[in-house]
Amino acid sequence: MRVLVIDPDPARAALVAEGLEGIKPLEVRQATIFDEREVAEFAPDVVVIASDSPDRDTLESLREASHNNPRPVVMFVDRSEPGLAEQAVRAGVAAYIVDGLAPSRVRPILDVAMSRFALTQQLRGDLAKAKADLESRKTVERAKGLLMKERGLDEDGAYRLLRKLAMDKGRPIGAIAADLLAFAGILRGDAS
Amino acid sequence: MSGLVELRLGFIPLTDCAPIVAAKALGFFEEEGLDVTLSREVSWATIRDKVTVGALDGAHMLAPMALASTLGAGGGEAVPMIAPLALNLNGSAVTVSVALAKMLREIDPEGMAQNPITARPLARLIERRRESGEAQLTFAVVFTYSMHAYALRYWMAEAGIDPDRDVRLVVTPPPRMVEQLQSGGVDGFCVGAPWNAVAVLEGLGEVLIRASEFWPGSPDKVFGLKADWAQAYPDEVRALLRALIRASIWADDPVNRPELIDLLARPEHVGASAEAIGRALENEITFHAGAAGRPRREHALWFLSQMARWGQVGSKPDFDAIADAVYRPDLFRAAAASLGPVLDATLVFEDVSMTPSAALFDGVTFDPTDVAAYASRFSIGRLTL
Predict the structure, then answer these.
(1) Which of A41, B8, B130, B272 suits B322 as a labelling partner, its CA being 20 to 30 A distant?
(2) Residues of chain B whose C-beta is under 8 A from some C-beta in A?
(3) A65 touches chain B (CB under 8 A)
């Protein structure tokens, strides 16, 4: 079986392709965009496409224009597995199969795609959070420095003051530090 | 917790997403007690699927898509949708590459000097290319069930071109249209704003006919919802419509145009140049004036006539019943009338008594009382009724 993964996000496509090698598909190819010639040449049995790929509508149109195209595809809707199509849509994956292929053969492929999409999202989320944490730590350091200079506090005292403000306001310490720096900027005339 | 009703709405980066984007940016949804999250999508199929499974509560939709989904056209699952608001009239256009425009001008200078330009010069060129064994020309639309597809097909067939046989008709996503025109992947297309203007401003394309010339007051996008969701949440639907109607009024007002263009140009919305976006807003797209927001059943019936003409609906459907199930002017009217304290209701209906033009550019009048007869009057078509 040949599986084509179309995903504008090459890292995610690579993850999906790698996951698919663990199951039965014979050949897996990945592409960032849909290219009709390339697809005709590869002749996939299944096309897995990310729903954030603008090429989805092109692929979708092939099922209406099958007389013009040698590779008719139909959207995967398997009523014997209620909720699967919904799960896939929510995960951001769509699958198209060539006419004649049993929908049950797509199930494991779709499962891999969905789990890899979720994994990518989680990794990206972790990365964004790590970046934000780092940014917030830098902000806190700068706010501490400002308090030490302006209020004559030592480092520990500056941190305790920030923490107290954060607790009083019920906001993260990074946000309080950012506000403090912004207001200090305004007082210095940065925003005038 | 904001205490507001949380809803998710989808849109495609096109100028006519304006009412949805503006209602959010101006706080109209919030004033209606709605906490709306916008989701920028890049394909119509994804919009349809997300609305179908409830990942989106409502969306910017191609008007015929709501009808096609309800009918289960093209082998898809039949999912009833409703269109209680038309987001805009006009805005799309047929654009060809500068190279093709040059060839058309050489073969038929008189035809190309007409206004609007018919497909007759194109028909002559196609004939000559066939005689000399040249490859078919490729034209792109954005979706099979779209005003763009039906307008391009109608315009071609009016000049004797069979869009299924004499050209290669493909689907290309709007943001890829211009690069395809540049690379020669397509020779022409019918797409919504701002992409025609982008092609013209980049010196790659030439507009042959605009939607407003093809059919004055051309229907285009609607705000679409899943029918069973709308039935279960009537208050939310009304609140959404009220916010969107107010945003449409705001978007029409020339005073707000710089702010609207600025809003749409942002990368999280349309992400095209302000100049390109501004073009179609000038004397082309209407969001609200003349009761543009009212979903008119004659528009639904025209779309159904074209779906029938091109063989997209099989056995003879009950056109009137489908149009009335999908197009819901009653919901529009109720929401608009309820805006009374905020908005003078007469504004909403000011020229509602005016019948929209029923004649297309070829002078043929659409008769909504006999869709089947209209659909079968054309010599080029795939009618299977």
Answers:
(1) B8
(2) 41-46, 49-50, 52-55, 74-77, 142-144, 168-176, 312
(3) yes
pTM for this prediction: 0.86
Which of A82-91, B180-189, B315-324 shows the highest mean pLDDT?
A: B180-189
Residues A139 and A117 in one domain: no
Question: Residue B1: its pLDDT value, please?
Answer: 46
Question: What fold does the segment set B93-214 form as a domain?
Answer: D-Maltodextrin-Binding Protein; domain 2 (3.40.190)
pLDDT of residue B353: 45
A102 touches chain B (CB under 8 A): no
| Residue pair A97/A45 in contact by the 8 Å Cβ criterion | yes
For residue B123, give how far its alpha carbon lies from the nearest alpha carbon of chain A (Å).
Answer: 21
Cα A119 to its chain centre, rounded Å, is 9
A63 touches chain B (CB under 8 A): yes
Quote the CA–CA distance of B264 and B17 in Å, as a whole number: 8
Is A89 in contact with B50 (Cβ distance < 8 A)?
Answer: yes
The reply to whether residue A56 touches residue B169, judged by beta carbons under 8 angstroms, is: no
Q: Residue A176 is part of a domain; what is its CATH number? A: 1.10.10.10
3-state class (DSSP) for residue A62 = coil
Q: Indicate if A110 and A135 belong to the same structural domain.
A: no
Q: Answer whether A63 sits within 8 Å of B74, measured CB to CB.
A: yes
The answer to whether residue B105 scores a pLDDT higher than 60 is yes
Percent of chain B with pLDDT over 70: 94
Contact A63 B143 (CB under 8 A): no
Q: Which numeric CATH code is attached to B5-89+219-375?
A: 3.40.190.10
Residues in chain B closer than 8 A to A85 (CB atoms):
49, 53
**Beta-carbon pairs below 8 A across chains A and B:** 76
SS3 A22: coil
Q: Are residues A105 and A136 in the same domain?
A: no
Number of structural domains (chain A) is 2
Q: Which residues contact B314 (CB under 8 A, 6 or more apart)?
A: B384
Query: What pLDDT is recorded for position A192?
Result: 45
Q: Verify whether the Cβ–Cβ distance B42 to A54 is below 8 Å.
A: yes
Is pLDDT of A131 > 60? yes
Q: Rounded to the nearest 5 degrees, what angle is found at the Cα of B95, between the Cα atoms of B145 and B209?
A: 85
Query: Could you tell me if A100 and A159 lie in one domain?
Result: no
What CATH number is attached to the domain comprising A21?
3.40.50
Interchain CB contact of A54 with B (< 8 Å): yes
Q: Does the beta-carbon distance from A77 to B42 stay under 8 Å?
A: no
Q: Which domain holds residue A154?
A: 129-188
Which residues from A are below 8 Å from B179, CB to CB?
none
pLDDT of residue B285 exceeding 60:
yes
Q: What does the pLDDT average to over A19-23?
A: 82
* pLDDT of residue A80 exceeding 90: no
What residues of A are in contact with residue B136 (Cβ under 8 Å)?
A: none
The answer to whether residues B138 and B187 touch, using CB atoms and an 8 Å cutoff, is yes
